[in-house]
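New here. Invent one.

***
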Amino acid sequence: MGIDPHLEHNLESFFTMDYPMFELLFCIEDTVDPAIETVQSLMSKYPQVDASLYMGGCKVGVNPKINNMQPGYAAAKYDLIMISDSGIKMRNDTLFDMVNNMTEKYALVHQMPFTCDREGFAATFEKVC
């Protein structure tokens, strides 16, 4: 278990999004994950942002990622939920863009992640796909 070299920069971009009302729900499976310190540091740096940290997950099915996110999902305050990964950097207008593209006909909006800073095979594969 290691930390992505851009973890802090990526996560900080979530804290600086420009949207009237949102919350950040960080779900980390392992209580000894070094990313916990990064999340806690950012929560201290941006106390005006409604952010919570959930650890341990909850078994609701066979998908470990869904199990990991379940406590955050159960605690969510708002009807609209955006799920993202720590390897994604958010633009400050991402939430506005996604919500503005929702209509009565389209209730789900997916944006392709743009990867630019990561190195290695997985990052190269993400750039191609």
In short: Helices lie at 7-15, 35-45, 64-75, 94-100, 121-128. The chain has a mean pLDDT of 85. The two ends are 25 Å apart (CA to CA). Residues 88 and 113 are 7 Å apart (CA to CA).
